[in-house]
C-alpha cells in the first residue's frame, strides 16, 4: 500500500506528496479517481505536471502540506482577508511575478483556497497601480 504520490515538474524534479496533499487539487483528485486510484493504490506511476516548473510546484506543495488538515474549503462563501494567517502572509511574501505564476498554477491544479487567496492578494496589489507600469515580462510568462 502506498500513500505517497510522485509529482514530476516540467524540469524533471520529482516531489513526494501524500493523499491529503494531492486531494487539495481538484484536477489531480479527479484525474486519480477517474483511473480508480486512491490513497491505498499500489505501484503508482509518476504523475507528470508539464505546466509547472519545480520552483512553482515546490511552493504549491508547501502550501498544500501546511493546509492538509484544514476543513474543506467552502468556495460558496466570500473570501475574507481574515482567512490569511501569519503563515500564509509569509508564504505569499514573494515578488508579484511569482505570485502570478502561483495563481496560474493554482488555477491549473484547481486549488480553490489558494486561487482565492492569490486573487485577493493580486487585486490588492494592483489597486492603484498604473497598468502601463506592469512589465511586459509578467504577461509573457503567463502565456
CATH superfamily: Potassium Channel Kv1.1, Chain A
Cα separation of the termini:
40 Å
SSE pattern: EEHHEHHHHH
Using the coordinates above, name the CATH class: Alpha Beta
Give the beta-strand count: 3
Q: What structural category arises from helix and sheet content?
A: mainly alpha
What general form does the structure show?
globular
Taking pLDDT < 50 over at least 5 consecutive residues as the criterion, the unreliable ranges are none
Describe this structure in words.
Keywords: Ligase, Ubl conjugation pathway. The chain has 143 residues and is mainly α. The chain has one domain (4-142): 2-Layer Sandwich (Potassium Channel Kv1.1, Chain A), CATH 3.30.710. It contains seven helices and three strands; from the N terminus they run ββααβααααα. The chain has helices spanning 19-22, 26-34, 54-66, 86-91, 96-109, 112-126, 136-142; strands at 4-9, 14-18, 47-49. The protein has a three-stranded mixed beta sheet. A hairpin with a 4-residue loop joins strand 1 and strand 2. Helix 3 (54-66) packs across helix 5.
